[in-house]
UniProtKB/TrEMBL annotation:
Pfam families in the record: Epimerase
Record domain NAD-dependent epimerase/dehydratase: where: 1-233
Family of the protein in this entry: Belongs to the NAD(P)-dependent epimerase/dehydratase family.
Protein known as: UDP-glucose 4-epimerase
Domain of life where this protein originates: Bacteria
Biased composition (Low complexity): 321-340
Region (Disordered): 321-349
UniProt xrefs under InterPro entries: Epimerase_deHydtase, NAD(P)-bd_dom_sf
SUPFAM superfamilies: NAD(P)-binding Rossmann-fold domains
PANTHER family hit by this protein: DTDP-D-GLUCOSE 4,6-DEHYDRATASE-RELATED
Length: 349
């Protein structure tokens, strides 16, 4: 198995589930999010090997496919925080579109049987009702455009090469350990700090999916012969005011809420809720936790996980020429493989 962005918010949960299912996992993650310390949990696990490289490095990605020969790829690596994507559309396109293209080009070196692409609800046009996989796509954001282009590339190439490809359209993920200032972690942090909460437009309605449940769905879909597009959502929409009210109640605090223009997006859909009939038909046993229970679990942890550039630099050092002969990770991390010196497969299939 190959998981890109395996140290990310969703990625680490997917890696945990794959290992629990007995899969060996090669993790491709360049550390740019500053979350590589999450991989320390696999320091003594030979079934997880970290490859420190970027999805944008086409040569290194091809070398990795030759060395690991994964039977399946779960492609999660992306720039996803919409304000950052809007500020730097070129970098967003480089990572989200060119990075995906490099993975598809690597099929010339080794063609996987399965390919799961992490897409987004951001590909859809505005709608007054639930969004099904057949709903019209007309992204309003740079991020949404890059994800829709990624889907199109994946499914075109998969049809040509005989790869079973699935795009999972993820709705609003939340849970412990996010690195971006989305509503749930931001509201938690501000409510804990006391005083007024300064947030964006809380009238918007979103379909909130607990990150661990999303990981369960991704891994379960991977194990089934499913292709095309599948929404991963709960089918229930919740307004931002309700989310914030629940957070205040869970923390046992009170606070006034003010609208912060700096956190209000210029282009935003009023309601983004999944039609999950296809997901339920494929995974009838999948039951996401109710929002309040997910918020309770999230509130037990830090609101926003701090980034650790020092840890990331440590991993980069481990992949340099001086460390090429060693697979030992710094500071108790998992085995790290230099992209310049591909290692023979150690069962990471």
């Amino acid at each position: 198995m190959l998981v890109t962005g395996g140290a990310g918010f969703l990625g680490i949960a997917v890696v945990r589930r794959l290992r629990a299912a007995g899969q060996s996992v090669a993790v491709l993650d360049d550390g740019s999010a500053g979350t590589l310390r999450r991989l320390h949990a696999f320091a003594d696990d030979a079934g997880v090997v970290h490859h420190l490289t970027s999805v944008c490095d086409a040569d290194a990605v091809a070398e990795l496919h030759r060395a690991v020969r994964p039977w399946a790829v779960v492609h999660l690596a992306a720039r996803h925080f919409i304000p950052e994507c809007e500020r730097d559309p070129q970098e967003t396109a480089r990572v989200n579109v060119a990075g995906t293209a490099s993975l598809l080009a690597a099929w010339r070196a080794h063609r996987p049987q399965r390919f799961v692409f992490a897409s987004s609800a951001a590909v859809y046009a505005d709608s007054t009702g639930p969004l099904s996989e057949r709903s019209r796509c007309a992204p309003r954001t740079v991020y949404g455009h890059t994800k829709l282009e990624g889907e199109r590339m994946v499914h075109r190439q998969a049809a040509r090469r005989g790869v079973a490809a699935l795009s999972v359209r993820l709705f609003n993920l939340y849970g412990p350990g996010p690195t971006a200032d989305h509503l749930v972690p931001t509201a938690l942090a501000q409510a804990r700090a006391g005083g007024a909460l300064h947030l964006g437009d809380l009238r918007t309605i979103r379909d909130y999916v607990y990150v661990e449940d999303a990981a369960d769905a991704v891994v379960a879909l991977l194990a089934r012969d499913v292709t095309g597009r599948v929404n991963i959502g709960t089918g229930r929409g919740t307004a931002g005011q309700e989310v914030v009210a629940s957070i205040l109640e869970i923390l046992g605090v009170t606070g006034t809420v003010a609208r912060d223009p700096a956190r209000t997006r210029a282009r935003d859909s009023l309601a983004v809720v999944a039609d999950v009939r296809r997901l339920r038909a494929i995974l009838p046993a999948w039951r996401p936790v109710p929002l309040r229970e997910g918020l309770l679990r999230t509130a037990r942890t830090a609101a926003v996980e701090p980034r650790h550039p020092i840890v990331s630099r440590g991993y980069r050092a481990a992949s340099g020429p001086a460390a090429a002969a060693s697979s030992a990770a710094p500071a108790g991390g998992p085995a790290v493989v230099s992209p310049a010196v591909p290692q023979p497969s150690t069962g990471a299939d």
